[in-house]
Design a protein that fits this description.
By secondary structure, this protein is α+β, with helices and mostly antiparallel strands. The protein is about 35% helix and about 25% strand. It has helices at about 20-25, 45, 60-80, and strands at about 5-10, 30-35, 50, 55-60. It has a four-stranded mixed sheet, with helices on one face. The protein is globular, with a radius of gyration of 12 Å. The N and C termini lie close together (about 5 Å). This is DUF1450 domain-containing protein.
């Protein structure tokens, strides 16, 4: 199996949900890293987002973003199947 890294900014609205616990339980191959800042100045205030293996994933709501993150994780893991 491969490894997928999901990075989240502490100031991002996606932190309203426990993304770290949710993703790490669903996908053992995933490591969620909570960072103070991901250096996309101001983006975390505009909409929920995360980096999945350095690819930006956005959503209008934290829940929508989480669903898109799941989709991207599945794409990344498909490479290892």
């Amino acid at each position: 199996m491969g490894i997928v890294v999901v990075e989240v900014c502490d100031g991002n609205s996606i932190t309203e949900i426990n993304i770290e616990e949710i993703l790490e339980q669903e996908f053992p191959e995933v490591a969620v890293l909570m960072n103070e800042c991901l250096s996309f100045c101001g983006l975390c205030r505009v909409k929920p987002y995360a980096l999945v293996n350095n690819k930006r994933v956005f959503g209008k709501t934290p829940e929508e973003c989480l669903d898109k993150i799941r989709e991207e994780i599945k794409k990344e893991l498909a490479v290892y199947e």
